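Ticket 4471: requesting a sanity check on a complex prediction with flavin mononucleotide. Repro inputs:
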Amino acid sequence: MLNGKHIILGVTGGIAAYKAAELTSLLAKERATVEVIMTAAATQFVAPLTFATLSRNDVHIDQFAPFSSSPRHISLADRADLFILAPATANTLAKLARGIADNLLTSTLLAASTPLVVAPAMNNKMWEHPATRENLATLRARGVEVIEPTVGRLACGVNAVGRMAEPADILQRLKLRVES
Ligand SMILES: Cc1cc2nc3c(=O)[nH]c(=O)nc-3n(C[C@H](O)[C@H](O)[C@H](O)COP(=O)(O)O)c2cc1C
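Returned structure tokens:
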């Protein structure tokens, strides 16, 4: 189903970034072409080399890196069949809801017209904050598919809602999205 699909995986700065490494591996096993875009914050959690190795592709971070044909955020957006943001931080979701394009990931998100699936992960209070609720409602109204976080032990030590969905479950949702 995902065989031959070009998938852009956006990784943002949360502890669940380690789970995005597993998702990359699962997508590669499905023979999808995976290109990873990381925010600067995401590189604090997992090394870009991990994603480059698992995806067998370059990892994109720098908006202003030299390019050969068109700017990176445009060429990445143009070649995507599907965009997945996992983990999606409260910060990047807020930027996306408002159309802010201040790094390579948010610029590419704004330039992409492909289906977008987001898998948020954050502290329960961040998840329940009215700003986050509002941002997610805005994104849903635009057709963005939100894979809800689950209840479990969070990085801050509490047992509450905010854990990113498991990579295998995200994979299933992506398959359904491609099918529909
Ligand atoms: C240890 C640690 C864990 C964090 N985990 C999360 C998280 O799970 N979700 C989240 O929204 N922000 C989290 N943050 C805060 C983000 O890293 C911060 O908002 C950052 O600006 C996000 O940038 P980005 O959206 O460009 O990746 C965490 C920060 C630290 C230091």
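Notes from triage: Helices lie at 17-29, 48-55, 72-79, 90-98, 104-111, 124-128, 130-141, 167-179. Leaving this open until the requester confirms.
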